[in-house]
Amino acid sequence: MSTATLTEAERVVRADLNYIGQNLEVEFSRLAGKKLLITGGAGFLGYYLVQAVLAYNRLVDPARNIEVTVYDNLMRGMPPWLSALKSDPNLNVVRHDIIEPLPFDMPAFHYIIHAASIASPIFYRKHPIATMDANVNGLRSLLDYSRLQQQRGTPVEGFLFFSTSEIYGDPTPENIPTPETYRGNVSCTGPRACYDESKRFGEALCVNFAREYDLPVKVARPFNNYGPGLKITDRRVLPDFARDILAGRDIIMHSDGTPTRTFCYVADAVAGYYKILVNGKPGEAYNIGVESPEISMRTLADLVTQLARDQFDYRGRVVHQVSIDANYLVDNPNRRCPVIGKARNELGYNPQVSLEDGLRRALTWYNEHREAEDA
Ligand SMILES: NC(=O)c1ccc[n+]([C@@H]2O[C@H](COP(=O)([O-])OP(=O)(O)OC[C@H]3O[C@@H](n4cnc5c(N)ncnc54)[C@H](O)[C@@H]3O)[C@@H](O)[C@H]2O)c1
Q: In testing the pocket of ligand 1, which one of 38, 44, 124, 196 has its CB within 8 Å of the most ligand atoms?
């Protein structure tokens, strides 16, 4: 399709996929001709994890194509973007719940990305056991499979587990910005524990499988990714703001606006994840995010309002409203900001998209993706 016939949102996605591909020339050439499994590939990060590989395939000789298989329980339905790719010969989508035993006819995958987990706080608090099972038992099945593949002489060459910045909990002030060496300040019984603690245990599994069995298992700790692919109904902060803006109503903020975050545009983050998969050290975890700006939710809401005013002539204001969900802010970290020197120095991770540019791209995408299934 020529760029002249693309919608604004399609242009954003096309530009992002090119940007990811340029960042990953070396890494994708290592995956060339290989089989890649992405669990949870129908989700937000899957949107670019999957499409970046398929975009690479279109540029190279068919013998170098990367075959992608997605295992996803499609708990929120089959997303339209994934249905639209169903005729791609290098994509295989399997409805599979990672909590269940792995399919008996599982092919010999060279690379595995385990991203299947409920990720949005509202939803993991609603389904705590399913969240823990995906991050502990689902991960364990995939690690056991990797061990078996090693014994069969068809070893997995790279394995990436999606952990989270939430494993740090609410870091003490002297540990912000937060390096990978910080051990965390986390409740093991609070409403977020199902997520934070299962990711922590998942990391322990990964490190020990890497050490004991010499498997190439690596861990990513994402810090607040946003952008195209994150459903407007996901109930994370930016889709919530976008939903209010596109409905023409005031932006509702459920906190007092003081907690701070750093936001990493998804195209930068996805480049980082593939870099870990291919070049990360076995048994090591890497922060993936941006160091700045660390902004308060109030400043973020004001910035999004301003951008929406320029883009859509939006006239709403930012208002504070206590959430009807009593646990909405319980154990919510006050500040979150990473040190990313390890990924920069060891992997050449180099996020470039500014917050304003990323938010503009996200709003453009939401403008054409106003509807999505609720959970
Ligand atoms: N997006 C972020 O900023 C962020 C931050 C920290 C960690 N993460 C982690 O990255 C991974 C992907 O996150 P995302 O933002 O794309 O989340 P998402 O909710 O958009 O996507 C997750 C996908 O996993 C699938 N899934 C959930 N449980 C499953 C199961 N038991 N079996 C099979 N599929 C299952 C869902 O159907 C969904 O398609 C998750 O592990 C999440 O914890 C993401």
A: 44
